[in-house]
Each structure stands twice: as structure tokens, then as C-alpha cells.
Amino acid sequence: MTAVSNPLADLLAEKGVLLADGATGTSLFAMGLEAGEAPELWNETQPQNIVKLHQDFVDAGADIILTNSFGGTRQRLKLHKAEDRVFELNRKAAEIARGVADAASRTVIVAGSVGPTGELFEPMGALTYDVAVDAFVEQMEGLKAGGADVAWIETMSSADEIRAAADAAVRVGLPYTYTGSFDTAGKTMMGLDPKDIHGVAADIGDGPLAVGANCGVGASDILSSLLDMTAADPNATVIVKGNCGIPEFRGSEIFYSGTPPLMADYARLARDAGAKIIGGCCGTSCGHLAAMRGALDDYTPGPRPTVETIVDRIGPLRNKTASEAPPESARRQQRRRG
Ligand SMILES: [Zn+2]
């Protein structure tokens, strides 16, 4: 096996910490994407909007931009009768991001977003490991052809699915990262614990360039998961890409409570907790991202925070922590944010 390149390492060596981008879905909805519409189809029908998505994040200071290909497997595209266009839609997603990155005056890494297939593995569901690998290979071949630097496997719940995607990346010849979504009592829906994230695909290819968490529940919860991940392996390159504060339903619509100053503080706490790649997930606009850039520039990391510090500064946990400790007491949950 030939060694794959590590596009993250050089930039990390230069900058110490990298800023990944913010929300794709939330940003596209703000541009008029309809609920139930496949964002990936916009790579062909509304490419100017995808250019703007990436350009706004680059202008806000992102070092890493994620392609508009999260649902780009045949299983997800089938819901939109586009399962026969996997390669083209993913190639186009990467080409658009590549164009924005190459026009930037500094190095910007194009991360090929790869989300879950949405299907359950055997024996709970019908998806076999080999079918999953084939689906991810098909997607990643498009991402690679379009110029993605790395396969960015994200929002994962199942260790099997992470492994299948990592196997696919090796087969295609892309380096890879992966992040879990710890949205169920501090673990993923399939029971993966943040402290166990490091070993999931360590034996596949040269191993991941970085591992971590994205999405999940709120910004406080993901910082708690981050503490578990960096404690379990202080030398790992850990990604944290959390939602913008806490999701709140108003009618059928979701809003996120995070303000730019709150996300700036989230970024500083993430740095203090040992994250090397910090970004935002759902609800994180370019305005939030610019505040995070400002917070990280010239920032000297402080002491490692405790969960209590995180709750005081960012807000209450919405979920249990993975160690099954009870969530912060009701008294603390009612305290005002610092
Ligand atoms: Zn998210």
C-alpha cells in the first residue's frame, strides 16, 4: 500500500489549530433550499449558491471547507431519484469547492463530505458491509475526481459504517478523517462512546488523519465529548464541529441559540480542551465563523476546562455525558450564562 498524503499536517504545523467551516444545510436553507430537497442537486442546478456558501466561509477565515456532498451516496440520492448520478454530483461538489479554495490567497483544504447512508447495518437492517464500502467508493471516486484533498466522513453513528467509509477511502486513495455524532445520552445512536472514537478505524490504511465529533446536540455537549476524546488520546488530532448553541423548535422549524460571541467562546474552550480542528455544524453562519476565527487568532490556550466551566460559559448540557454521570444539576442548569 502506498502512503497517502497528509494535507492537514503541513497546515497544522504552520498554524497550530485549523478552523473548519460552518453549517451547510442551514446556510442552504437560508438561500431557499426547500425541506425535502436534496442539497446535492444544487451542485448542478444552483452552483452559484454553492460557490457563495464556500466563499462566505473562506472570507470568514475557514482553513477547511466541506463539499456539498453529505448525502451523496446512492442510498441517500435514491430518495430523490438521483442514485444513478452519484459520481457526477460528487465530482461537481468537489470541483466547486476546489475552485473557491484555489482562488483564495491562502491555503484552503477541500474536505469531501461523506455522511451516513441512512441505512442500518445487518443484523438490525439490510445494509451489508460490502454494499456500504461500494457505495462510499462510488461517492469518493467522484469527490477525488473533483479535487477533494481528504475524505471527511462525518455525523456517523455506527462504527461499522465508519470502517466501511474508511475502507472506501483507502481503496480510492484518499486520506480520511471521521467524526461521530454523539447525540444519544453522550454516545452515538449506535452506542459508540467518544473515548472509543480513536480505535474505530486505526487499522485501516494508514489510519485516520484526525478523528472527532460533529453535530450531536448542543455546543456544551460536544465540548464534554471533546474532553473525553482528548483525555483518551492526548496526542490525537481531534476535530470538534459543534452545533451553534442549542437547537430549539419553533413550530416545525429549528433555530439555534448560539450568538457569535458564544461561538467564539466555544472555539476558545475547544482549543483549551485540546481540539486541533475546530468548526461549527448546524446553525453556524459565516458571521459565527468569523467570530470563531477572531477568537482563535493569537489565542494562547488556557487550562483544560472542566464540564462545569463549559456549562458556566456556554450553557447547560442537553444530554447525559458518556460516562453516565448525571447531567448537571437542575440548579446549575438554571444559572445564567456567563
Ligand atoms: Zn449538524
Notes on the protein architecture:
There is one protein chain. The protein has 338 residues and is an alpha/beta fold. It has a single domain (7-314), classed as Alpha-Beta Barrel (TIM Barrel), CATH 3.20.20.330. Helix content is 40%, strand content 14%. Helix 4 crosses helix 6 (86-103), helix 7 crosses helix 8 and helix 9 (219-232) packs antiparallel against helix 12. It is globular. The protein starts with 6 loop residues before the first helix and ends in a 5-residue tail after the last helix. The model is unreliable at 325-338 (pLDDT under 50). Bound molecules: zinc ion.
Q: How confident overall, as mean pLDDT?
A: 93
- Ligands present: zinc ion
What is the number of independent domains?
1
- Spatial order of the strands forming the largest sheet: 1-10-7-6-5-4-3-2
Regions with little confidence, pLDDT below 50 for 5+ residues: 325-338
Q: Structural class, from helix and strand content?
A: alpha/beta
By CATH, the topology is TIM Barrel
CATH-assigned homologous superfamily: Homocysteine-binding-like domain
Number of strands: 10
* Oligomerization status of the protein chains: single chain
Strand content: 5-15%
Q: Portion of residues in helices?
A: 40-55%
Give the C-alpha Rg.
Answer: 18 Å
State the end-to-end distance: 51 Å
Largest sheet report: 8 strands, parallel
